[in-house]
Design brief:
The chain is of the alpha/beta class. The chain is globular. The chain has helices spanning about 1-30, 40, 85-90, 115-120, 135-145, 230-245, and strands at about 50-55, 60, 70-75, 95-100, 125-130, 150-155, 170-180, 200-205. It is built from 6 helices and 8 strands. Strand 5, helix 5 and strand 6 (about 150-155) form a beta-alpha-beta unit. Helix 3 runs parallel beside helix 6. An 8-stranded mixed beta sheet has the order 1-2-4-3-5-6-7-8, sandwiched between helices. The N and C termini lie far apart (about 75 Å). The protein folds into 2 domains: about 1-30; about 35-245, Rossmann fold.
């Protein structure tokens, strides 16, 4: 009887610890959230040539017919809307784009988010998966497990985790990074062994980590030497040159 009581007490204590830990993580995620700023919010307005909707996903739907789509995983604790300044520019050139908001704004909690997107839009024949920071790492996990569904992967100041080696994967890959020494992604070029040998690496001079989106300064980052608008434009141009060579 005593053993059963001890086991019951231990079980209740363990459940309490799990609940407290989960609530603590939720509070941490909410208080650390990096919200989309004014430029990002303005970039979410629809026009005659680009329909933008925000329901389960943020969808940039160009009015022209296209078979090229891109799924974007946001960076850790970053509000999904923050990436609209760059992604809007790409969509305006005819690329169908979906940003997948993540649980607690952490893409690692839903690395398979791309599955539902791909299944929902069967008319898209070529899929690109991209992500910033932690979002790029989560995208790599998906690409490594689903090579038949993804044609291309793009990293914004990011790289695959050691557990997701894409060096033998058939996907084409692009890695865009800021040349400023920044955290947490100051090791982009130290992870080249995890990507295909023909991966294209492009460093943007004076760019930092936070300016891949519009969510304000980021702790541990270094001040950029270029404006956010300049960085947005350069990233969009690099992306379009890669998508439409």
């Amino acid at each position: 009887m005593k053993l059963k009581r001890i086991a019951k007490i231990f079980g209740l204590a363990l459940i309490s610890i799990i609940i407290i830990g989960f609530l603590g993580m939720v509070i941490w995620a909410r208080t650390g959230e990096r919200e989309a700023q004014a430029t990002a919010v303005a970039a979410l307005e629809s026009t005659e040539s680009l329909m933008i909707t925000q329901e389960n996903w943020i969808v940039f739907d160009p009015v022209v017919d296209t078979e090229v789509g891109m799924i974007f995983y946001p960076g850790g604790l970053v509000e999904a809307q923050a990436y609209s300044p760059i992604l809007r520019q790409i969509a305006e050139e005819g690329v169908f784009i979906i940003i997948t908001p993540m649980p607690l704004n952490l893409a690692i909690f839903d690395t398979n988010a791309a599955n539902e997107v791909i299944n929902t839009f069967p008319l898209i024949k070529t899929w690109i998966i991209a992500g910033h920071s932690l979002g790029g790492s989560a995208a790599a996990i998906y690409a490594e497990k689903n090579p038949e569904k993804i044609n291309t992967i793009v990293f914004w100041d990011s790289y695959p985790p050691d557990s997701s080696n894409l060096s033998d994967n058939q996907v084409s890959a692009l890695s865009i990074y800021g040349t400023m020494e920044n955290q947490p992604n100051n090791s982009v070029l130290e992870k080249t062994h995890l990507l295909p040998t023909d991966t294209i690496y492009i460093g943007i001079e004076g760019a930092n980590h936070a300016q891949f989106g519009d969510y304000g300064p980021q702790a541990g980052d270094v001040e950029a030497l270029i404006t956010p608008e300049d960085q947005y434009n350069q990233v969009a141009e690099i992306m379009l040159d890669f998508i439409n060579p």
